Amino acid sequence: MKLSTKGRYAIRIMLCIGRFQNLGSVSKKKIAEQEGISTDYIEQIVTPLKNAGLVVSTRGLHGGFKLTNSASKISLYDILSAIEGDFNKVEVLAEGVSRADDGVMKDIWKGAFKELVDYFSGISLKNCIDNYEKLMSKEPIMFNI
């Protein structure tokens, strides 16, 4: 399975929203500035996140995005499956078994996808936010004159 750019950007966008939502709704402009992603592309990525119930948006002067749940209750799997689709519904697993070796491989693929689901389900957005903050606290502050 190849993780698309949209999947990786979705995690970055959710991380940004999680980091800044304590200041209010996080605007597309703020996300674009922080993550270097165009506002149009942000909208394309946020739409499935809204449809999955992971974020809500508000319009207006102080509008933007907020997580619908605490970051500790949103897993990376929740985010990736909203963007990429369910890992267990991959073509390989949905096809009928036409040969004996296809049946053997189908079980192997199921096991591999289960490992991916378990791995990404075990990492919360809060884990990522905490890791980000820890990493940033170690970085020296640079001033250019």
Write the layout of secondary structure elements.
Layout (H helix, E strand, L loop, with lengths): L4 H16 L7 H8 L3 H13 L3 E4 L5 E4 L8 H9 L6 H4 L5 H22 L3 H14 L7
Antiparallel strand pairs: 1-2
Helix pairs in contact: 1-3, 1-4, 1-7, 4-6
3D structure, described in words:
By secondary structure, the chain is mainly alpha-helical. The chain has one domain (5-138): Arc Repressor Mutant, subunit A (Orthogonal Bundle). Helices cover 59% and strands 6% of the residues. It contains seven helices and two strands, in the order αααββαααα. The chain has helices spanning 5-20, 28-35, 39-51, 76-84, 91-94, 100-121, 125-138, and strands spanning 55-58, 64-67. The protein has a two-stranded antiparallel ribbon with strand order 1-2. α1 packs across α4 (76-84), α1 crosses α7 and α4 packs across α6. It is globular and about 65 Å long. The N and C termini lie far apart (46 Å). 19% of the residues are buried.
